[in-house]
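As a point of orientation, let us examine one representative protein, giving the amino acid sequence and backbone structure tokens.
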Amino acid sequence: MIYASSFYTADRSRNACSYYHQGKMVIEEGDEDRKGCFETMILFDAKEQPVEAFKRSEEGAVTQFSEEELSKLKETFAIINGEN
């Protein structure tokens, strides 16, 4: 397992931690508001595409992304990977 941390300096608003197994990303956590707590967790398939995602509230409650949110996330990753 390999761990990587990314800090997005363009707007200084996001920090992400990614976990890799056998060279493929399997999980990514995101601190969207830079308060030190990871609000999102995305699970990836063998092709490094999102298959499920969760969000955590400030109170600690964890909920699954809605179908609409997950669909939008999948579209974003498809664009990033040049599939659209």
Notes: The chain has one domain: 2-80. The beta strands are 2-8, 14-21, 24-31, 40-44, 50-56, 62-64. The CA atoms of residues 59 and 67 lie 23 Å apart.
